[in-house]
Amino acid sequence: KTYNVVLLPGDGIGPEIMDVATKTIDYVAQKYNFGIEYEQKLIGGSAIDKYNDPLPEETLKACKSSDAVLLSAIGSPKYDALPREKRPESGLLNLRSGLGLFANIRPVKVWPALISESSLKQEIVQNVDLVVVRELTGGIYFGQPKGRLQSENGERAFNTMTYSTMEIDRIARVAFELATDRKKKLCSIDKANVLDVSQLWRERVIELSYNFPKVELNHLYVDNAAMQLIRQPDQFDVILTGNLFGDIISDEAAMLTGSIGMLPSASLRLEGPGLFEPVHGSAPDIANKDIANPMAMVLSAAMMLRVGLKENNAADDLENAIDKVLKDGYRTSDLMTNGKKVLGCREMGEQILMS
Ligand code: NAI
Ligand code: MG
């Protein structure tokens, strides 16, 4: 079997970490006897430089007809003066909406070798293994009406938090199915004590739960959830949230594990290619220095292999390699390096290949 994968190296450290990721993919593809055909396209700043467009039509078209899309990161201070819709970031937003990727999946787990290096207490983080499922194409970020108008109290601005039954049901189903494959615990986060949209959210999630009797469902108000994530994060398995709450909660959850350089993500729809990318940005401050941490990128490739291409053995190999590299004491400079063997980006890639 041969898969068609679109590569979007993007900006900053993007090309350096993408190079490491493709080498690791090639290695496991050969080992498990499947083929990968890459198609490399431009997005973000690099696309602006060449086409004056952060998401060229050709890029979106290639992504739509692929089996999966692997993205590094976009963005550079070079484009800060451009209007919002012309900036690199809008290329990524338009790619997500252009592909209809309504489900953002962020696994948060603490690697055994890094437990003692967390900034939080060891006993709090040691059993953390959760996944945030965030609705990505609806809610207050997209709701109409929105805007600014004059009022007797000066200018007034407003956004609308809105969800339909269809939007809630499809993201909730993703979360229930994921929980079914994991520890069978689902926590839905809302603000149903105050918001109508959260009341509908909660009603629909409860309704859907009758189809998943094996999954233990509970609900938390978002303010309490923010607290519980710090107090006792190992109580969570799968967390389900809307767009705004998910944005905040998933960044909070990410910090439990330490470095942003370790965290992958997937953005999915029911049918069609998913987008797999590290949580971090383009890190312009360390670009072209060969010191970036390629592990979030390799873990995103692993997610692509598992979720997008269903090559579970290959995905396991990459995750096991990361685990081993860390246990063997290798670190990149964004991690705690005291007494550890510090490697550059390319060297870390080679070490992962040898593990
Ligand atoms: P950032 O994630 O790029 O960097 C934050 C800090 O973490 C920096 O000190 C950076 O050096 C470090 N860092 C990030 N990834 C690292 C890695 N793999 N290895 C070692 N260190 C790493 O976020 P920042 O600085 O807020 O944004 C920089 C640019 O990236 C902006 O243009 C922003 O819009 C863009 N961005 C893009 C994202 C994406 O493509 N999905 C997500 C977040 C930001
Ligand atoms: Mg965010």
UniProtKB/TrEMBL annotation:
Instruction: Provide the cofactor list for this protein.
Output: Mn(2+); Mg(2+)
> Which terms in the Gene Ontology molecular function aspect does this entry carry?
3-isopropylmalate dehydrogenase activity; magnesium ion binding; NAD binding
Catalyzed reactions:
(2R,3S)-3-isopropylmalate + NAD(+) = 4-methyl-2-oxopentanoate + CO2 + NADH
The residues covered by the Isopropylmalate dehydrogenase-like domain are 4-352
Question: Which biological process terms from the Gene Ontology are attached to this UniProt entry?
Answer: L-leucine biosynthetic process
Q: Which UniProt keywords apply?
A: Amino-acid biosynthesis, Branched-chain amino acid biosynthesis, Cytoplasm, Leucine biosynthesis, Magnesium, Manganese, Metal-binding, NAD, Oxidoreductase
Known SMART domains for this protein?
Iso_dh
Q: Give residues annotated as binding substrate.
A: 96, 106, 134, 223
Its chief place of residence is cytoplasm
The reply to whether NAD figures as a keyword in the UniProt entry is yes
Q: In which pathway does it act?
A: Amino-acid biosynthesis; L-leucine biosynthesis; L-leucine from 3-methyl-2-oxobutanoate: step 3/4
Q: EC top class, in one word?
A: oxidoreductase
Q: Hey, which family's this protein in?
A: Belongs to the isocitrate and isopropylmalate dehydrogenases family. LeuB type 1 subfamily.
The protein's name is: 3-isopropylmalate dehydrogenase
Q: Which organism is it from?
A: Prochlorococcus marinus (strain MIT 9211)
Lineage summary:
Bacteria, Bacillati, Cyanobacteriota, Cyanophyceae, Synechococcales
Report which gene this protein is encoded by: leuB
